[in-house]
Design a protein that fits this description.
The protein is an alpha+beta fold. The protein has a single domain, classed as Arc Repressor Mutant, subunit A, CATH 1.10.10. The protein is 63% helix and 13% strand. The chain is built from 6 helices and 3 strands, in the order H-H-E-H-H-E-E-H-H. A 3-stranded antiparallel β-sheet has the order 1-3-2. A hairpin with a 2-residue loop joins strand 2 and strand 3. The longest helix has 16 residues.
């Protein structure tokens, strides 16, 4: 029995690797807490994030950097503050890839 998900270097295999990499980024409770906080607020300053989560500023900045690098959060500068919000495009793409992999559809089986 063979399946396109199992074939090395296939498009399916590359999609699986992308999802695995995203899960690696999300495999941290503090990063998930940050995303949860950002979901509750349209946009929030880093100082409000570490205060709300009762975490050291350097730890929050580290996790925000990882989330930003992966596209799960986006930021913009407002004066001396950095404002963060969820990276909706990345989050939607992530869920769409998961659906393609885990939910049987004709599109993915081709």
């Amino acid at each position: 029995m063979t399946n396109k998900c199992c074939q090395k270097n296939s498009r399916k295999q590359r999609e699986l690797q992308k999802v695995k990499n995203d899960f690696d980024i999300l495999n941290d409770v503090n990063r998930l807490r940050i995303l949860c906080l950002l979901k509750a607020h349209k946009e929030i300053c880093v100082c409000e994030i570490y205060s709300a989560l009762d975490l050291p500023q350097n730890l929050v900045s580290y996790h925000l950097g990882k989330l930003k690098e992966a596209g799960f959060v986006i930021s913009r500068k407002e004066g001396s503050n950095v404002m963060y919000q969820q990276g909706d495009k990345k989050i939607n793409n992530f869920f769409n890839l998961i659906k393609l992999i885990l939910i049987k559809t004709n599109d993915y089986e081709k």
